[in-house]
Write a structure and sequence with these properties.
The protein starts with a helix and ends with a helix. Strands 3-4-5 form a three-stranded antiparallel sheet. It is globular. With about 350 residues, the protein is mostly helical. Helices cover about 55% and strands about 5% of the residues. The chain contains 13 helices and five strands.
């Protein structure tokens, strides 16, 4: 598949935002196509990172821990599991805010796309924002901790996965069901309401957590409720074409196709697991059709926005430039392709 070849040719940073879904997408491509080259690429890339993994650094909070666990299950390479446990130990050594691990010691605030002039207090915040918690990390920590905990029998990791998910839900999920992008300790304020790809990070993270979370876990019902609230909010905001606007609730923000890929994968997985009802089946297909319509002859998903970084200005999320071939576009596209194919094969 050209989409997978294009992703494998990407220069991954090991680690940065988007790498995790990129590796999961390549593993999905191998499962879908029966071609082990992509899974082999993931295994080899992880081995290269493992050889130089220490000292750990801040951006290792974006490491593809869940993909490491999937790779171990595929290869039974014990060295991958050892590295995953080392990574988990580092991640659990970070400071916390309101029960969630700090995503950045200094939040990566930027001048807003679109040119909005920030008020003086927000301009000052740009120079010293302090630590924050970001919704993207809901896709990293909880699925990794629970998956690794199940693989190793370490119940403390499962407890940590649940604790982190509940903290993200408390800090970032709005009454509407949508998530805000980030929360800053310095202001005790949430920013970036309804950023659409952020909803994809959150929904996939919650569903991946629930896939491995034991059925009898005391927090399972609360996490399922939060997951269904998010899915329902996104369903209400799906466009007639099957996609979403860059800011989910803002029709003037224009389309952004990575969200369609994220949601096709998430809706299909949610229905398959029983967390979401059958009413999400056709919206999953509509999202997939919308995403696939944006794929060019080279396998590149078009209309994908750049890394958004972060801004206290809501207008920033409307004006993030689009048209990039990146792991957070190609990865969810491949994951959606697998999950839609699995849905089609079910009786």
């Amino acid at each position: 598949m050209r989409a997978a070849d294009l992703l494998a040719a990407h220069r991954f940073e090991f680690w940065h935002y988007g790498d995790s879904i990129g590796l999961e997408g390549l593993l999905a491509a191998s499962a879908l196509l029966g071609d082990q080259r992509y899974a082999g690429w993931v295994h080899g890339s992880l081995k290269a990172w493992m050889a130089r993994r220490t000292p750990f650094q801040d951006l290792d909070n974006t490491a593809a821990g869940h993909a490491m666990c999937l790779c171990f299950e595929h290869t039974e390479d014990d060295a991958v599991l050892v590295a995953a446990r080392d990574l988990a130990a580092f991640l659990m050594s970070r400071p916390m805010l309101e029960g969630a691990y700090v995503s950045f010691r200094e939040a990566p605030l930027r001048e807003p796309h679109g040119g909005e002039v920030l008020p003086e207090d927000e301009q000052a915040l740009m120079h010293s924002p302090g630590p924050g918690v970001f919704v993207d990390c809901l896709h990293f920590d909880p699925p990794f901790f629970v998956h690794l905990g199940v693989l190793t029998g370490e119940s403390g990791l499962v407890v940590e996965a649940v604790s982190q998910a509940l903290a993200y839900i408390r800090l970032l999920q709005d009454e509407s069901g949508l998530f805000w992008h980030f929360w800053l300790e310095k202001t005790s304020t949430r920013y970036g309401y309804g950023w659409s790809r952020g909803q994809g990070w959150a929904l996939l993270g919650l569903l991946d957590l629930l896939e491995y979370l034991p059925a009898g876990n005391a927090a399972r019902e609360d996490i399922e409720i939060a997951t269904r609230r998010l899915a329902a909010a996104m369903l209400r905001l799906q466009t007639p074409a099957g996609g979403w606007n860059a800011v989910a609730h803002d029709a003037g923000s224009g389309t952004e196709s990575s969200t369609s890929a994220f949601m096709a994968a998430a809706f299909a997985a949610g229905v398959a697991s029983g967390v979401l009802g059958s009413e999400f089946s056709e919206p999953a297909m509509a999202a997939w059709r919308d995403a696939w319509a944006q794929v060019d002859e080279h396998g590149a998903l078009g209309d994908v926005s750049a890394a958004v970084w972060a801004s206290t200005a809501q207008s920033h999320y409307v004006h993030v430039p689009r048209g990039f071939v990146v792991p957070w576009g190609q990865g969810p596209l491949l994951l959606a392709a697998l999950r839609i194919a699995q849905a089609d094969s079910r009786p």
